[in-house]
TrEMBL record:
Name of the molecule in the record: DoxX family protein
Highest classification ranks of the organism: Bacteria, Pseudomonadati, Bacteroidota, Sphingobacteriia, Sphingobacteriales
A Pfam entry, by short name: DoxX_2
Taxonomic source organism: Mucilaginibacter gilvus
Residue spans crossing the bilayer: 12-31, 51-70, 75-93, 99-116
Record's subcellular location: Membrane
Length: 129
């Protein structure tokens, strides 16, 4: 097995800052859907979602976000969030005028945050695992 250098303190801090901001965004989005906040409902309805499905979508995102926030399950959470964002991107692409690249950006930030703070993931990506 090849030894890997430990993640630098600066990279770990950057990873937690990125992850923290992403987690806050996902929590804000999920809770807005769960409580049926007006802007969240209006945006979801504009994308074609029936009002009765919006809280369920919020609970799914909330569960994925909680898994992402817990270090032991963060990779599973990132994988599930990636699936969620893929669905969001597909829905936005079929609706004219929607900023469909935002899910791609948030997915990249989700993985960047976990990459910088997770030595095992860095080894796996670099092929030294």
């Amino acid at each position: 097995m090849i030894e890997t250098k430990s993640t630098s303190k600066a990279a770990t801090i950057a990873g937690w800052i990125i992850s923290g901001l992403i987690i806050l965004f996902y929590l804000f989005d999920a809770i807005g859907k769960i409580v049926k906040e007006k802007h969240s409902v209006d945006g979801s309805v504009a994308l074609g979602w029936p009002i009765e499905h919006i809280p369920t979508i919020g609970f799914i995102l909330l569960a994925c976000t909680i898994l992402y926030a817990i270090p032991r399950t963060s990779v599973l959470g990132a994988v599930l969030i990636t699936g969620y964002l893929g669905g969001a991107m597909a829905v936005m692409m079929r609706t004219p005028g929607q900023p469909y690249l935002f899910p791609l950006l948030f997915g990249a930030l989700t993985w960047a945050g976990i990459y910088f703070r997770n030595k095992k993931l860095q080894s796996l990506v670099k092929g030294t695992a």
